[in-house]
Amino acid sequence: PSGQTVQASGIQVELEELEARGEEYPMTRAFLHLVDRLTDIAVPPSLGAGFRAPGFDPYLEFILESVFLKFSARAYKNPGEKWQVTSGVLQVLQKLLQYHDVSPEDFLDQTIEVQG
Asked: pTM of whole model > 0.70?
């Protein structure tokens, strides 16, 4: 509806507002562990349909953009937790890459700019 603002919610808010402020990341680590376990089987292409963009992409985007690419800029009460978070991300990515059969369709609608 017009005039209403949509607020972010869920794990994104947990990470950005609660965990980062407290410098502890138990929800993020638990989420990464859950995703690691859930990806032991094939992810249904219609996962989440009707509530958001279907498939695994929204989860992967969160893991890459909000967790992995920002892990070194975040503060941690326990310096070891920084590496637990990073390890969790890399474990998920390694699994996805290990079992993914690359096909030409993976590169459709992708623009690659090469800087010379």
From this structure: yes
Q: How far apart are CA 26 and CA 85, in angstroms?
A: 9
Kindly state the tokens that stand for 62: 């969160």
Return mean pLDDT, the chain: 85
* Residue 49 dihedral angles phi and psi, to the nearest 5°: -55, 140
pLDDT tens for 23-62 read 999 999 999 999 999 888 887 778 777 777 777 888 899 9
What 3 state SS string does the chain have?
CCCCCCCCCCHHHHHHHHHHHHCCCHHHHHHHHHHHHHCCCCCCCCCCECCECCCCHHHHHHHHHHHHCCHHHCCCCCHHHHHHHHHHHHHHHHHHHHHCCCCHHHHCCCCCCCCC
